[in-house]
Amino acid sequence: MYTAKIGLMFSTTGPYAALGQSAVDGAMMAVREINEKTSLRLVPVAADPKGVPAEYERLSADLLGGGDLRHIVGGITSWSRKDMIPVLERHGALLWYPCPYEGFECNDHVVYLGACPNQHLVPLIDHVVAEGRKRAFLVGSNYVWGWETLRVARERLTTAGIGISGERYLPLGDTACAHLMDEIAAAAPDLIVNSLIGPSNHAFMQALSRLDLPAGRPLVVSANQTEADLDALGPAADGMLAIGAWFETLAGPANASFRDRIAHRFGAAYRASCNFATAYTAVHLLARGLARAGHDDPRAVFEAMAGTDHETVLGRIRIDPVTRHSSLIPRLAMVEAGRFRILSDPGTALAPDPYLARAPGPRPLRTPPTLRIVS
Amino acid sequence: MTPPLDLNFTGCRALVLHPAETVRAELIARLDALGVAATAEWPDSDAVAAADFVFVDVDMGHDDQLPWAPGTAPVPLVGLIRSESPGRIAWALGQNCDAFLSQTALALVFSTLVIARAKATERLHAIRREAELARRAGLRDVLVSAVIEIMAAEGVDVLGALKRLRALAMIERIPLEDAAAQYLGAAAPRRTGEGR
Hints:
The structure holds 2 protein chains of 2 kinds.
Chain A: E1 2-9, H1 17-37, E2 40-47, H2 53-65, E3 69-74, H3 78-91, E4 94-97, E5 110-112, H4 121-130, E6 135-141, H5 144-159, E7 163-170, H6 178-187, E8 191-195, H7 198-210, E9 219-222, H8 227-233, E10 241-244, H9 253-266, H10 274-293, H11 298-305, E11 309-312, E12 315-318, E13 331-336, E14 339-344
Parallel strand pairs in A: 1-2, 1-3, 3-4, 4-5, 6-7, 6-8, 8-9, 9-10
Antiparallel strand pairs in A: 10-13, 11-12, 13-14
Helix pairs in contact in A: 1-10, 2-3, 4-5, 10-11
Chain B: E1 13-17, H1 21-33, E2 37-41, E3 53-57, E4 77-81, H2 86-94, E5 99-102, H3 109-137, H4 140-154, H5 158-172, H6 176-184
Parallel strand pairs in B: 1-2, 1-3, 3-4, 4-5
Helix pairs in contact in B: 4-5, 4-6, 5-6
């Protein structure tokens, strides 16, 4: 039996604790399955940075400093990932990052298992462009996720001929959004792209649900909503269009079995999320790499696992050996009565394109010419 | 106004001049992920004329590898840094490298392309602007001759003659010196083009 220590670096307290707890639950469920069913024995070492950026750096140095732990599954925000990278580089360690992020990064010490923009924002925006929306309002959290996702949204919407009536950012954790409601009421957009996270997202959606707009509520789209958010949002989330690599309500026997195992472990009322499923997948892929390599050298583990197909709860995916990102299946879902109703599930995974080098440009809106018979 | 950054390099061609196979292979793979078709050779290559970006090893690079006068690369030039020998850094600066990429950080090639393209655009624009100013400075005698001729022909003073020339320049959308040459019927030296 081969034993390997792995770090689990998730904030289970602090401003985005719900997301971190969901990821820890997924990772721990995978650890238990591996320890029960394979000859590999994983020893998880948990660390809680409490959502404080500097703590990610300090705690990853603590985890890696002993020399007997070289893999960390963790990080929720891009900020946390970027804070851990210098420590990972110094120790030659590997981070298995399980969250969707804004792309434009390919670090040799990270495996990117969450979606990048060609797998989340681009298909989401293309979907609403095809619906013929006219005017968009963009709102996001004031850090790199918000800035970059809204930059991609703005460029893609503008190219498609959709006007941008406003673009606003809230500091992380800020819940004061009355001024945003005033702007939205004045601008009357028919589309809102929401890249707010945590309490800001919840406050914004609650305020928006109370806003009385003559033309009705604009369609809200988001690439960062999970079941953990739905619990906090309640009916305020209804009608929101989300995109994700996994939703609890996905059809198929593999997901039914996964849901049963989750219910068996955490209880029938437990809500798993994309973070749960991706952290669960991360631990399983790490375990496959460890088993194939026979030791925990990060380069060997990565090479043993990358470049081949893996059947996972996210579907059949493959880690690209060059960009180190995963192919993923982008699923569109509409929130209805506190659940994600799947609108589309392409079935096959979309290759990662973290620099949007290969994503086809948006189709400009074509207005049919008005023809007039003249004599 | 700051021009928008070029963030998409799909369809571009890059040439990597580097002796180490591992660096060449890794850079080619990373550039391919960005949609850039790269070839790598050492010490020199015919592909340099068709490249949109040229990467050159700063440690071993030399002027004869690059078919342009030092410092005047017609495309974005990226220095690949390994050791930090002052003499080699001086060589790379003499070549006016538009960006540098550490060979221990090849994963950062995207930002290097963005910076190199932006800085090269700025550098080439400055070169064209300087050439145009030099050309116009060389036409001062033509300008003086045209002013004297207009003063004699139309009975106006210096300011009146200049006003006449400015009007001609504005209508024709050409510099004042070219308007002067046109007035005299003389062929001014050709203006520098905007393309490569």
